[in-house]
Amino acid sequence: MSAPANTAQPRRALVVVDVQNDYDGGNLAIQHPPFRDSVVNVARAMDAAAEAGVKVVVIKQMAPETSPIFAKGSHGGELHPEIAGRSRDHYVEKTLPSAFTGTDLEAWLRANAIDTIAVVGYMTHNCDLSTIIHAVHMGFAVEFLSDASGSVPYANSAGYASAEDIHRVVTIILQSRFAAVLKTAEWVDCLKTGALPERDTIFASNQRALARNAA
After folding, report:
1. Alpha carbons 182 and 185: distance in angstroms, whole number
2. Which residue positions does the secretion signal occupy (predicted)?
3. β-strands 141-150, 180-182: how paired?
4. Interaxial angle between packed helices 35-52 and 184-193, expressed in degrees from 0 to 180 and rounded to the nearest 10
């Protein structure tokens, strides 16, 4: 159950997921990493992609007018100004967590010979996670910029988890199988140097944890 091999020279697209105003102090305010920090990294990734000739896809979550979040026609549902004001090569509206479900994203990526997607945006544990797993199942390699994303806390019948816990655990899980997890600055360096980000496996990740616990 090892990670899919990355290509020697990946043909990347940057997929910018749901960077909308409700996450910026609105009805679903991102807590960790803080939105004010992570959105700067989203913008940095978009600028670096444009400079490197990497295509940029912007995704927007859609919801009915009565929804408490991302309501159609609401300020909270609109793209954040940092993203809305930047150039993009493709735009996708979605109604479910994965950016692939019910959209033309897969067809557009394949038409542009993309084999690797770099995911930024919100939320780490919901739409990012869903999009990443979906992409892997379709044969794409994935990169995830952990400081250009974020989470919120949850409490429900299953228990409580802080935003920091959720974000940290999901990034560890992603690195173990589904994506190469790295910081925005590291990703920008990869674009400039051609270096490939580190990938891992379930087995190796587990073995390290067992060795750590035994120490």
Report:
1. 8
2. none
3. parallel
4. 10
What b-and-e string marks burial along 108-126, b requiring 16 or more CB atoms within 10 Å of the CB? Answer: bbeeeebbbbbbbbbbbbb
Indicate the DSSP class of residue 22: G
| 88-144 tens-digit pLDDT | 999 999 999 999 999 999 999 999 999 999 999 999 999 999 999 999 999 999 999
Tell me which residue of 106, 107, 113, 115 sits closest to 143, measured CA to CA.
115
First to last CA, the chain: 26
CB 127 within 8 A of CB 121: yes
d(C-alpha 112, C-alpha 55), whole Å: 9
Indicate which CATH number applies to the domain containing 35: 3.40.50.850
9 pLDDT tier (thresholds 50, 70, 90): confident
- Looking at the predicted structure, is the pLDDT value of residue 3 above 70? no
Contact present, 107 and 144 (Cβ < 8 Å): no
The structural domain count of the chain equals: 1
Q: Is residue 2 part of a domain?
A: no
Nearest CA-CA partner of 118 in 140, 87, 97, 86: 140
